[in-house]
Amino acid sequence: MFTGIIESIGSIRALTPKGGDVRVHVETGKLDLSDVKLGDSIAVNGVCLTAVELPGDGFAADVSRETLDCTAMNDLKSGSPVNLEKALTPTTRLGGHLVSGHVDGVGEVVARSDNARAVEFRIRAPKELAKYIAHKGSITVDGTSLTVNAVDGAEFLLTIIPHTLSETIMASYKPGRRVNLEVDLLARYLERLLMGDKAAEPASAGTITESFLAANGYLKS
């Protein structure tokens, strides 16, 4: 688990193909690795990876075919800057929100504009994730815990303050960039809870629809 508070901007040193997937070597910048052991988790742009090598100035991790297919990791190349966060501990301040490091989908930056000293980004999420994104709710973008300021269909607006711009890779975002998205864990669990006994049925029978919500008293006719 993570908090979505980025600890360091690192960079990709190398991406090495290995047996159909990839081993990524990350230089970790100011990230303190003194308490990191082999097998520990580190989030790279919001993707939870397991350290399999610790050469001293960073770490290496294996990236599965599943992760490559479901995230924007394929867009990275040698020299790409990345957001880094170590897994939280029982004494970690939860300054953001609970983040699993399991990316739900890949979004796209569709607009960027200045708003006083802040920068506003409009991001388009995959349609299947739109139902989990709420006004003033939490969302994780490339591992950064952020507050949604407005929602319009599958698009949502973020207002990023100067500190966040300087401590993450968001300052480099331009329209067209693909970003890793993780929705709020509570929204995921709430959806499952609303299904009740239908959660035990096959996926085709257990899908929540508008008619299901109306029949179970969650919508007024």
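(the above was protein one; protein two follows)
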Amino acid sequence: MTIDLPSELITELRKAKRIAALTGAGISAESKIPTFRDAMTGLWASFSPEELATPEAFARNPGMVWDWYAFRREMCAKAIPNPGHVALAELEKRVEHFTLTTQNVDGLHQRAGSLRVFELHGSIARVKCVDTGRLLDGEIPECDEPPPRHPETGGLLRPDVVWFGEALPVEALMESAQAARNADVFFTVGTSALVYPAAGLPIEAVRAGATVVEINPLETPFTELATFSLRGKSGEILPAIVAALDV
């Protein structure tokens, strides 16, 4: 499949010393990971994400919330990074400064080889003590009635993800905003540009004068602000961009 890329974009990328990217659920969907709401199927079809992804829900029924995230954790573990993930990792190797910020919790960017990754919503692969926030080292312990407890703190274990009503990790957000302001080229990939504060990152890049590239199958509220808005799958467009840099 031939991807028609603007020559001006390739020129800007060849000159760029600082590149930043923001990725959302769209890039993970290409690895067959359902979006947050699309995952409400089967046994979970009668629930809404808001019923299962809050501190209040965990306090009411920790076993049910744990099981929901165990279901999703297994799904993410079986997923494979797609060519879009791999292309971003390759792009990181070609530039002096590269920062990748993701709204996804599946860890596919790291598995594809990306090194500098900021996870705004945490990681579903990690668990932590609900009382102290202390992460669990090693494998999740077995127990008869989930959730298990942290072996050192004794507190119930919960996924290390950001739930509704919780703040995003301050350091990750600050580093991501700084990268957006410093970027020569900024990519927004597979995200609706609706959920703040993450949706503010490409705005920061625009204000700072970066070349901003949107990659998404559909138009978004950010489309009219992007320097280049490319329609299609990230798993097709991003590899084409990397290939074009070698021509």
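Reviewer note on protein two: The beta strands are 18-23, 97-102, 117-119, 122-129, 157-161, 185-189, 211-216, 228-231.
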